[in-house]
Specification:
34% helix, alpha/beta, 12 strands, 4-stranded antiparallel beta sheet, Rossmann fold
């Protein structure tokens, strides 16, 4: 049986604003096995980043993790106190944010910022700490690591800063790496280098990765499994080959049809009709039903339940369940 690195059960995270309650993540359940990469995809605003922040319990007011369970190393992270969580953040679970410029302090040298994490979580000091940082910078492919240690963030390119963030995330031998849109601000060539680096380090260090992105191409190339989210809800969940070759949820199918493909000749790209709903007042029933070409009366009144098409292939859709039954 595959060893699970993290298991999320019925996670609910809301934001209580003046305009109403934003149902950012609503009853989401996923798991990531040891040494596996899970691609979490969906349109902007569907709740992907909120899932990542919820794992580390970095949701701040007006946000709140309302309910659910997040199991990591046989303990529910949502039941731990803040002191216990601080021992896990950075040390066992690390996160790479999409903007390294905003994540790095501009007034401190990048080496010192990585060293702070090393000293805090691994107890290394002085020369030992410095050497560990240099080793991590070399591991992520930064040449002249000893000199780069002394550089300030503004002295590095976007790709270099992202490598520094990866080095920081891996410096304490984290078991799970949450990567939130890690290549958004980078050009195509550097994107490939960063993702190849993460893939290589995953294999070398046996790290599990949650890859949060809206780029289906990246998911197809670098993920083992895929979880598709829509408006705070999980739509479809399976291995990457199944989702890309035989998608079933109408939203997943629509996503696939709305992007260009190099393996299929298309006369035109079919956009998804309508707009992403407000999470303050989402549609009743299935949240995708106003944009769905297969919507039935039940879709407007009842939320779809978990339906397992095949072992490991999960879809939340009334229409799919009905088609399979008939």
């Amino acid at each position: 049986m595959t060893e699970q690195m993290i298991t999320i059960k019925d996670l609910v995270t809301y934001f209580y604003t003046d305009d109403g309650t934003v149902k950012a993540v609503d009853q989401v359940s996923i798991n990531i096995a040891k040494g596996e990469t899970l691609g979490l995809v969906g349109e902007s605003g569907c709740g992907k980043s909120t899932v990542g922040l919820s794992i580390l319990r970095l949701i701040r007011r007006p946000g709140q993790i309302v309910s659910g369970e997040i199991w990591f190393e046989n303990q529910n992270l949502l039941s731990l106190d803040e002191e216990e969580m601080r021992k896990i953040r950075g040390r066992k679970i690390s996160m790479i944010f999409q903007d390294p410029t905003a994540s790095l302090n501009p007034v401190f040298k990048v080496g010192d910022q990585i060293a702070e994490a090393v000293e805090l979580h691994q107890g290394l000091e002085g020369e030992q700490s410095t050497q560990k940082v240099i080793e991590m910078l070399e591991l992520v492919g930064i040449t002249g690591a000893e000199e780069r240690y002394k550089s300030y963030p503004h002295e590095l390119s976007g790709g270099m800063r992202q490598r520094v963030m990866i080095a920081m995330a891996l410096s304490c031998n984290a078991n799970l790496l949450i990567s939130d849109e890690p290549t958004t601000s980078l050009d195509v060539t550097i994107q490939a280098q960063i993702l190849d680096l993460m893939s290589r380090l995953k294999d070398e260090l046996d790290v599990s990765i949650l890859l949060i992105t809206h780029d289906l191409g990246l998911v197809a190339e670098y993920s083992d499994k895929v979880a598709v989210m829509y408006a705070g809800k999980l739509a479809e969940y399976s291995d990457v080959i199944t989702v890309f070759k035989k998608p079933h949820h109408p939203y997943t199918v629509a996503l696939m049809q709305s992007i260009p493909r190099v393996d299929i000749k298309l006369d035109h790209i079919t956009p998804i009709p309508g707009f992403v709903p407000s999470l303050v007042d989402p549609p009743s029933g299935c949240r995708f039903h106003p944009r769905c070409t297969h919507a039935m009366p039940v879709c407007k009144t009842e939320e779809p339940h978990k339906f397992e098409l095949n072992p490991g292939h999960i879809v939340y859709c009334h229409w799919v369940a009905k088609e399979r039954e008939t």
